[in-house]
Design brief:
CATH architecture of the largest domain: 3-Layer(aba) Sandwich
Number of domains: 3
CATH superfamily of the largest domain: HUPs
Structural class: alpha/beta
CATH class of the largest domain: Alpha Beta
Shape: elongated
Strand content: 15-25%
Number of strands: 15
Number of helices: 15
Strand order of the largest sheet: 5-6-7-9-8
CATH topology of the largest domain: Rossmann fold
Radius of gyration: 27 Å
């Protein structure tokens, strides 16, 4: 089945054609490690994980790179203002390197909680200063960049495709849209490749002078080239990365290397909260811990993100999160019911209509620009068919194989993290069922009902069948 992806630069869905048969190289803009990422940030990171998983299910060998921005992420589009990391360091009165380590640790803990597969590398900007300087030197030599003292700027007029990704017009930008005045620049739209500031806490001595640091955009161009080469398949990020960041990446990379930089650009929409933007003043900038404090698993949030298409607006509410949590648990219950019916049966080659239809609809939805909502609908249709009964052990085993080795490979494990630490053990379940069985034999109906209620409260579903008592977790 052909895979079609929406390319921001082309403004349409395009059939995916890899640069190398059977292989995919992807670069994702990662976090700026000055504060712990909030749930809005994780929409883009979950999308990157989904994209990789879909490629792997389709049989591709994926090389996935995500950077950590630990210097140079300036507050304003015009490359003026204080580095976010340094601003936080001054506020907390600590070394910026200390913040980098603390926030990075939290970031990777969140990735684990969300079931996000680790990328093949997480390059940090500060580790690739030499590669950035080398690239800037090439741009200066080719006439695409110019020096003003110890500062270096990219000349946007030297690249006739500037604005092609975002749709921005240079003339309009020069008229003042989204820009601030900087007398050093030849043109207001030019952007910084290298800056000098003695007050900057993180700085390097280079051929451009002392006390310098990189602009934000050059970092990703240098690091993606280091790991994926001058030309690779896919670059992703949030919609806020389209301009100026990705627009500037394209300009400097294609000018430096004289060829196409990336084949497919993909971007996620912002996550809204309660119908609007996240704001500290509204106290709605939530972390994963905040969700946990309200009784939700990180996997509930992951499933909520999967229910919406990555290019569609998605509004976060706790009511919506509750719905996602219930849907996720329904699928967990479905898997455990399949395990119960399949028993020791290991046959996975059984063909029957409900499973064949679900498998085809699931893959078709994902191949249509990662239509996860339609893919999930196909799974729930299959669950509804199964719940009608009349499935054999072989059919249950084949369906279980689809759930574990296709559905969960795309959406991640649905139930490997528990919301609480007091889950009842299998042996305790068996003991309670034995107590209930004895109570019924003794005609102590109230006690039998009490034990069943205890099992239900613990999330245990007990079924009285012709073959005896069977149970599974809800």
């Amino acid at each position: 089945m052909e895979l079609h992806l929406y390319d921001t630069r082309a403004r349409q869905k395009r059939k995916f054609l890899p640069l190398e048969e059977g292989k995919v190289g992807m670069y994702h803009c990662g976090p700026t490690v000055y504060q712990r990422p909030h749930i809005g940030n994780y929409r883009a990171f979950l999308f990157a994980d989904l994209l990789r998983r879909v490629f792997e299910v389709l049989g591709y060998e994926v090389k996935q790179i995500m950077n950590l921005t630990d210097v140079g992420h300036l507050l304003a589009d015009a490359e003026e203002g204080e580095d976010k990391l340094e601003a936080q360091a001054r506020k907390d009165n600590v070394d910026p390197w200390q913040i980098v380590e603390q926030v990075s640790e939290l970031f990777f803990a969140d990735l684990s909680a969300l079931g996000i597969q680790l990328a093949h590398a997480y390059p940090r900007a500060t580790e690739y200063i030499d590669e950035m300087v080398e690239m800037i030197e090439v741009l200066v030599e080719k006439g695409h960049a110019y020096k003003v003292g110890s500062n270096v700027y990219f000349d946007v007029h030297s690249f006739d495709k500037y604005g092609e990704l975002s749709g921005n017009n240079i003339a309009e930008l020069e008229a003042g849209a989204r820009l601030e005045i900087n007398d050093e620049k030849r043109h207001p739209a030019d952007f910084a490749l290298w800056k000098t500031d003695e007050k900057h806490l993180m700085k390097w001595d280079t051929v451009f002078g002392d006390n310098g640091f990189p602009g934000w955009h050059i970092e990703c161009s240098a690091m993606s080239r280091q790991f994926l080469g001058d030309h690779f398949d896919i670059h992703t990020g949030g919609e806020d990365n389209v301009f100026p960041h990705h627009e500037c990446e394209i300009a400097q990379s294609e000018c430096a290397h004289g060829g196409k930089f990336v084949n497919y650009w993909m971007h996620t929409k912002f996550l809204q909260v309660d119908g609007g933007k996240m704001s500290k003043s509204l106290a709605n900038v939530y972390s994963l811990d905040d969700l946990g404090d309200r009784g939700f698993c990180a996997l509930d949030f992951r499933f909520l993100m999967m229910r919406g298409h990555y290019r569609s607006s998605l509004n976060f509410t706790f009511k919506g999160l509750q719905g996602a949590a219930e849907a996720r648990k329904n699928l967990c219950s479905f898997i455990k019911r399949l395990q119960s019916v399949a028993g020791d049966t290991s046959s996975t080659a059984i063909e029957f209509d409900p499973l064949n239809t679900a498998r085809q609809d699931f893959i078709a939805a994902l191949c249509d620009d990662l239509n996860t909502s339609a893919a999930i609908a196909a799974v729930f249709t299959l669950r509804s068919e199964f719940m009608k009964g009349d499935f054999t052990a072989d059919q249950a085993a084949a369906t279980l194989d689809f759930m574990l080795n296709t559905v969960q490979k795309v959406f991640g494990d649905l139930d490997y993290i528990q919301c609480t630490d007091d889950e009842i053990s299998d042996s305790d379940v068996d003991d309670l069922i034995a107590q209930r069985t004895q109570a019924r034999a003794d005609k102590e109906w109230a006690k039998a009902d009490e034990v069943r209620d205890q099992l239900t409260a613990a999330g245990i579903v007990v079924e009285d069948t012709a073959d005896g008592i069977k149970w599974h977790r809800a």
